[in-house]
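Check these lines:
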Amino acid sequence: MEMKFSPTVLGEEDLRWDSSGLRKFVKEFMSGLISEASTERKMAELNAILYRSSFPSIFGYTGSIWYMISCMAVPPETAASFSARFKPIIPATRTAVLDQQCQWCNRSSFPRKKSRKRIFMVVGNSVRRKKKKKKKKKKKKKKKNTMARTRVREPSRLLAGNTCRIRLSEIFGRATRSILGFFLMMGLCNGVHYLFRPFSQPRISSDTIVGLVVGNFIRKQLDLSTLKTLRYIVDFGMICYMFSLGLEMDPYILFKAPTRDAKVAYAGMISTLVLACSITPFISFSKTKEISFILSLSTVLSSTASPVLTRLITRLKIGKSDIGRLVIAAGMHSDFISTLIICIGYLFCKCQEVRLSTTRGFQLGFVLLIQMIVAAKVSPVFMNWVNNENPEGKPMKGPHLVLAVAFMAFLCSCPTILGYNPILSAFLAGTFLPREGRVSRWAIGKINYLLSTVFYPIFFFWMGAESRWSDFEPGQIMTWVRLILLFVIATVGKVVGTVIAGAILGFHWPESVALGLLLTMKGHFHIYLAIAAKTAGKTTTSTSIGMVIVIFFTIVHAPKVVAHIIKRARKRTPTHRMALQLLDPSSELKILLCIHGLQNTSAAINIMEISRGMAKPGVVVYLTDMIELTDEIAATLVQVEGEDTLTVTHAGVRQMRDQITAVVQSYVDENGDGITLGRMLALSAFNSMAQDICILAEELMGALIILPFHKSQRADGSLSEGNSGFRYVNRKVLRNAPCSVGILVDRGLGTVEKISRSYASLNVAVIFISGKDDREALAYAARVARHPGVKLSVIRFLVDAAAENAARRAGTYRISVAEQEEEMRLDDECFATFYERHVAGGHVAYVEKHLASSAETYSTLKLLEGQYALIIVGRGGKVNTVLTFGMNDWQQCPELGPIGDVLSGSEFSVRTSVLVIQQHNLKGELDGLDDDFSIMEMSRNR
C-alpha cells in the first residue's frame, strides 16, 4: 500500500488522538475490521502525529511507533504483532517524512539511521533496551550520503537539547511580532488620542478607531494560537477591570430610599428595557431567538459606562455643578443595577460553554451568596487589620500586601470552581469589599494604571482582530437596520425615561434631554460583551461589529452635549470679573499664586510678603501647584468623599506637595501676620490646565493670578529653554482669565532670604508708560508700597511732544485719535491718584524720562540694570506707543510684552526679577464653567 505523507492536509481536529482512540485503532487494525482506505487515513494521521512530536528525534522512526503504543498501555504481544503488520507501510511513509528538512540547520527532520543498535521492547510505560549480538560482517564501501545524519542518542539527553530549530525560530518570531505590535498599538492609540484632544473626545473613542483599523489589518498575520492568547489576556484584564469597577460601587443603595439621581437612572433604564424588549424579538440580532439573549441585549442597552462618563464629566469641568453631580450619580446607579442583573441572569440563562442545570444554578447562587456575605462581613475585619498595620506615609509591608492580594483573589475565584463566570464574580466580590482604606485605594490605583498602560491597547487590538470587516456585510439592508435600531433604542429609550423623570422632578426639558444623552454612554465592558456574543456563537460577526459601532456613537456625541450645557449655564450664571484697579485699596487682596514645584517656593514666599503691605487689611494667598496629569498620575486618582471629589495618591506628587506646604506654613507661622494661606491644586493636562486655573480664580473670586515663567534660571544666571507646556498654559490664561494676570520671571527674587519689616531692604521699581496694563501694574505697586521693607520707585516714560506729532502724521499708532486721547486721560487720572497717595508723602520715589523712540526706551532700560531686585511692568496689550514701536517685531516671548521681554532677556541683568501684569479683559470669556452653578434648580423654578 503506497502512502504519501502531507502534514498540512490534516486539520487540527484530526490530530486529537487520545489513548482510547489509539487503542481502538490498534485493535481494529489487528483484527482486520477496518478497510484499507480507512487504514491509510489513520496511518496518515499517525504519521502526522509522529512528525509534529519529538519522538522520532529520540527513538528513531521505528522506535517511535513502539514508544507511542507503549504509552497507550498496549500489551507487548499486541505491540509486536502490530509492528509486524505496520512494518510494510513504514518505507513509503518514512521516506516522505525524511524528506522534510530543516531550512535553518539543513538537517533532516527525522533520522535516516534505523535502530540497528537498539531495539526498544515495551512493558507498560517503561522501555527496556536489549543489545543484539554484533555480527561480524565484511565492511562494504558505501557511497557517502549527501544528507546529514543524526546520531541516535540517549533519550534524556535528546529531550533536553534536541529541539527543532525551526520551531524555535517560529516561536521567537511570533514573540517578536507580538511585542512590536503591542508598542505599535500603544503609539497609535496615543497619537490618535492627541489628535482628538481639541474635540474633547475621551480616550475610548480614539482607541476604538485604532483597534478597528489596526486589528483588521494585522489579523491576517496572526495564527489561531495568538488569537487565543489574546483572548486569555483580555479575559484577565476584564476581571481586573470589573473588580476595580465593583470597588467603586456602593451596594447598600439598594436598601435606601430612591434619591433624585436614582429616579432618573431607573426611569431611563425601564424605558430602554421596555423599548428594547418590544423591538428586538422582531429583528434577527441573534442566530436563535432565545428569550435569554433578548433580555441580555435589552439590559446592556439600558446600562451606562460610569467610569467613562465620570472621567468625561470631570475632565470637561462640570463635575461640581448640580447637573454634573446628577449625571455621575445616575450613571453609577445605572451601571451597578444593569451589571447586577447580568450577574443574576447568568445563573439561569444557558451558555454555550457552560450549560447549567437548575440544581447547579441553585448551587451557584448559594456560593455567590456566601461570597457576598464574606466580602461584606469578614473582609472589613481583615482589611482594617492590614490598614492599621500599614499607616499612611509608610511603605506597605510585603507580607501584608501578599495576604491582601491573595485574599481578594481567593474571594473572586470561589464561584468559578462551579463554572460561574470569573469576570462577573470579580465584580460581585469588588462590590461588597470595603471601599475605604489604604489597601482598596492601592488596588484601585494599581489596577487602573495597569489597565490604562497595558490592557487597553491589547483590548482594542483584540476587538479589531475579532471584528473582521470582510464579514460585516455592508451590502445587506438588515445590517444597517440592526445598527440603526440599536442606536435608536439606546438613545431614545434613555431620553424618554429621563424626560419623564425630569417632568416629575421639575427639570426643564433641555437639561432632561442632556441627561438622557449622557446616560446612553457605553464603555469597555459593553464592547467586550459585543465581541463575546460573537465568539460564543450567539450573534454573527456583522451584528457584533454593528454593536461596536453603536457603542462608539454613544460616546462621541457626549462632549457636544456638555458644551451645550456649559453654553446654557454661561447665559444664566453671572461670572465674577475682577481687576486690581477697581478694588478698594483698603480691601483684602485675593491672589492665586501658582508654582511649578519646590524650586518656586522661595520666590512665592517673597511675593506673598511684599503683596500683603501692612498687616491690615492683609492678603489671602491660594498657593496652587501646577502639575501635569500623566497616565501614571491619573491611575492613582481615587474617589474618597463623594462622586465629585478625587484624591491623588501618587507618591511623588504627595511628597512634593507636603514639602512645599511645610516650607510655606513654617513661614506663615513665624512671619505671616496679615497673610491667610490656602492650598490648591491644578492637576490637568496642559491642554486643560489653563481652564482649571481660570475656574479656581473665579470660584475663589481672586483679583490676581500670578504664574511662574516657563523658563527657570540656571546656576550661571541664564535662563533655560523651559517647558513649552507651561508656556502654552500661561498664554491661554492670559487670554481667558477672569481677573488680572501676572507672570513672574524669577532671576534672583527667590534668593532673597528675608525681607525686613523695620527698614527698606528690597529695591522695587514700577515702569509706567501708557495703557490699562500699566495702570494695573501701578495699582499692584500701590499695594507693594505699603510694605515697610520695600523701597519703591516709579519710573514714568513720557513721549517727547515733537516725536508724538511726527508719529501721528506717519500713522504709527494702531488706535484712533479718540481712543488714544481716552487712554491718556485715564493714564493721567490713575497716575495723579497714585502720586497724591504715595509720591507726595515721600514714601515712593518718582522719576520721569522724556523719550522720543523705542531705541531710547531700550537704552534707558539698560541703565536700570542691577539697580532693582524686582521691576513691575505692564504687559502692554494692544497699546503701541512711540516708545515701544517696533519692539514687538523681535521679541522672543510675546506673552511678556515688549518691556517685559527686554527686561527678561539674556542681555539684561541676571539679578533682576520681572513681574509682568495684564489687566483683566472684560471681553474675555471662560472656556467652561466648574463653579457650583445650579442649572437644574433654575430649571425647576421656571
In short: The chain has a mean pLDDT of 77. Residues 165-196 form the longest helix (32 residues). The two ends are 94 Å apart (CA to CA). Residues 740-919 form a domain with the Rossmann fold fold (CATH 3.40.50.620).
